[in-house]
Amino acid sequence: LPDLHMLNLDHNLIDYIMADTFAELFKLARLDMTSNRLQTLPPDSLFSRSQTGVINPTPYTSIIILNFGGNPLHCNCELLWLRRLVREDDMETCASPAHLAGRYFWSIPEEEFICEPPLITRHTHKVWILEGQRATLKCRAIGDPEPIIHWVSPEDKIVSNSSRMVSYRNGTLDILVTTMREDGVYTCFATNAAGESTALADLKIIPLPHRGNGTLQILHHDPGSSDISTSTKPVTNSTGRSRPRDKTVSVTDVTGTTALIRWAQSKSPHIVWMYQIQYNCSIDETLVYRIISSKSKAFILKNLISGVDYDLCILAIYDDSVTQLAATKVVGCIQFSTHEEYPHCHLLHAH
């Protein structure tokens, strides 16, 4: 390509050209980019060389013919370099912004090729997310040209896409699985050719109520670890029958796959943010979590396994004013069993 003299790229639906795309085409004498979809053109050394033959024509310098009419040019400060070129008249017109639409490109004064600095119109201010849940931070900005938005983490590092974090062009940052490391203040940067604008978004991660991470505390008599797979064993009375260890939690309307859980209101002097139900069953020690509104006093568990024993605890989550950390208080624990179901047997009886 270094010996290329003529390059015709007209009518190709081209909407983007990288800077210095034609920089090494030193022998190029004609470039035709008419009737494409270009809204802007980046500076290129080819255009600078094209000025040499116009300003100081010599037998050794040729005039480079450039054609880029028929493109929907957005006439702002990013095209000011092009407006300052010395060249023969051509028929390029502006398609936008609105006050320049339809005007002849070369007749517009340079001072009208302006850009507007970014203005952040709305953004996430503060959000509380339970550890392990998905967090979404949003940032929207306007400007001319359209601002590019990126996020900076609490560690003062630009957030890049990964398996857990996705930063979108529209300014949305998704943290798919949150950990305590993501807790902190994030900065939204909106930038364009005219400047930049910033906004802060405070992400508060509520730790899961277990003491293994060293951030939580149980503030009344400890019935055992929050890991209910080892702490909520049934209490057996003199008759050998199992009974709940705490009357503040009750289980009713138990079927093979559902159960209605009720609990008494927490007596903590602190304001409860939410309740958390933790439970597992005798055939799978994996804990299942359910987050419940602080106004609720009952919840229906669904999709349970029939014919197995369940251990369940309810915890109140609130803000400890002393340590400024999320704290938990055990409301109560209970054990129950789901009913056995034999769908295949019922089907045989039907026949």
UniProtKB/TrEMBL annotation:
<keyword id="KW-0732">Signal</keyword>
<dbReference type="InterPro" id="IPR003961">
    <property type="entry name" value="FN3_dom"/>
</dbReference>
<keyword id="KW-0770">Synapse</keyword>
<dbReference type="InterPro" id="IPR003598">
    <property type="entry name" value="Ig_sub2"/>
</dbReference>
<protein>
    <submittedName>
        <fullName>Leucine rich repeat and fibronectin type III domain-containing 5</fullName>
    </submittedName>
</protein>
<keyword id="KW-0433">Leucine-rich repeat</keyword>
<dbReference type="GO" id="GO:0045202">
    <property type="term" value="C:synapse"/>
</dbReference>
<dbReference type="InterPro" id="IPR003591">
    <property type="entry name" value="Leu-rich_rpt_typical-subtyp"/>
</dbReference>
<keyword id="KW-0325">Glycoprotein</keyword>
<dbReference type="InterPro" id="IPR036179">
    <property type="entry name" value="Ig-like_dom_sf"/>
</dbReference>
<dbReference type="InterPro" id="IPR000483">
    <property type="entry name" value="Cys-rich_flank_reg_C"/>
</dbReference>
<keyword id="KW-0472">Membrane</keyword>
<keyword id="KW-0812">Transmembrane</keyword>
<feature type="domain" description="Ig-like">
    <location>
        <begin position="118"/>
        <end position="204"/>
    </location>
</feature>
<dbReference type="InterPro" id="IPR050467">
    <property type="entry name" value="LRFN"/>
</dbReference>
<keyword id="KW-1133">Transmembrane helix</keyword>
<dbReference type="InterPro" id="IPR003599">
    <property type="entry name" value="Ig_sub"/>
</dbReference>
<dbReference type="InterPro" id="IPR013783">
    <property type="entry name" value="Ig-like_fold"/>
</dbReference>
<keyword id="KW-1015">Disulfide bond</keyword>
<dbReference type="GO" id="GO:0016020">
    <property type="term" value="C:membrane"/>
</dbReference>
<comment type="similarity">
    <text>Belongs to the LRFN family.</text>
</comment>
<dbReference type="InterPro" id="IPR007110">
    <property type="entry name" value="Ig-like_dom"/>
</dbReference>
<feature type="domain" description="Fibronectin type-III">
    <location>
        <begin position="243"/>
        <end position="341"/>
    </location>
</feature>
<feature type="region of interest" description="Disordered">
    <location>
        <begin position="223"/>
        <end position="247"/>
    </location>
</feature>
<keyword id="KW-0393">Immunoglobulin domain</keyword>
<dbReference type="Pfam" id="PF07679">
    <property type="entry name" value="I-set"/>
</dbReference>
<keyword id="KW-0677">Repeat</keyword>
<feature type="compositionally biased region" description="Polar residues">
    <location>
        <begin position="226"/>
        <end position="241"/>
    </location>
</feature>
<dbReference type="Pfam" id="PF01463">
    <property type="entry name" value="LRRCT"/>
</dbReference>
<dbReference type="InterPro" id="IPR013098">
    <property type="entry name" value="Ig_I-set"/>
</dbReference>
<dbReference type="Pfam" id="PF00041">
    <property type="entry name" value="fn3"/>
</dbReference>
<dbReference type="InterPro" id="IPR036116">
    <property type="entry name" value="FN3_sf"/>
</dbReference>
<dbReference type="InterPro" id="IPR032675">
    <property type="entry name" value="LRR_dom_sf"/>
</dbReference>
